[in-house]
Amino acid sequence: MADATPDQPPRRFRSSRGRRVGDAVISVFIRAGLVPGSYLLTTRGRKTGRPRTNPVTVVEHDGKRWLVAPYGVVSWVHNVRADPRVTLRRRFGTRAYTVRAATPQEAGPVLKLYIAVATPTRPYFRATKDSPVADFVAEAGHHPVFELTPVAGKG
């Protein structure tokens, strides 16, 4: 898939049966620890209170861990905004975190790193892998980024 270009709008996320099946398949590989940098994020449903799990890629930048929403404000983003307590699971480990929304200036370099490692998400960004960080800062409002802080004594 090609990156979006300035004269071409970025792709919009649409949930579908195929995407849900794909997420279920990739979740099996993540659970087994076979997808580097990827985890199963569990949030509490903001309406139901039930656990909701989605595959995510975590980015490390400046000694911190960051969670990126490449498809925009999707369900898990609403959930973490309602309750910032989450868990990340991979292989045999589960760790509890709290999240904090990043500022656009914090998000810019994280988003640039993110599309370097999560290449299938590039069409959802206007900026390209070669764009300056400033272009990603400008896009930060469309791709929420959250800092992950480990919860002491959990996990």
Task: Please describe what this structure looks like.
The radius of gyration is 15 Å and the shape is globular. Strand 1 (38-44) and strand 2 (51-61) form a beta hairpin. Helix content is 28%, strand content 28%. By secondary structure, the chain is an alpha+beta fold. The protein has 4 helices and 6 strands; from the N terminus they run αβββαββααβ. Helix 3 packs across helix 4. The termini are far apart.
In short:
This protein has 155 residues and is an alpha+beta fold. Helix content is 28%, strand content 28%.
Q: Which features characterize this protein?
A:
single chain; 155 residues; alpha+beta; 6-stranded antiparallel barrel
Task: Please render the helix and strand layout as text.
Layout: H1 17-31, E1 38-44, E2 51-61, E3 64-68, H2 75-82, E4 85-90, E5 93-101, H3 104-117, H4 133-139, E6 145-150
Structural class: alpha+beta
Record field, number of beta strands: 6
The mean pLDDT is 86
Sheet-strand content, in percent, reads 25-35%
The largest sheet is: 6 strands, antiparallel, barrel
End-to-end distance, in Å? 37 Å
The residue fraction in helices comes out at 25-40%
Radius of gyration: 15 Å
What general form does the structure show? Answer: globular
Give the SSE string: HEEEHEEHHE
Low-confidence stretches: none
Trace the largest sheet across and list its strands. 1-2-3-6-5-4
H/I helix tally: 4
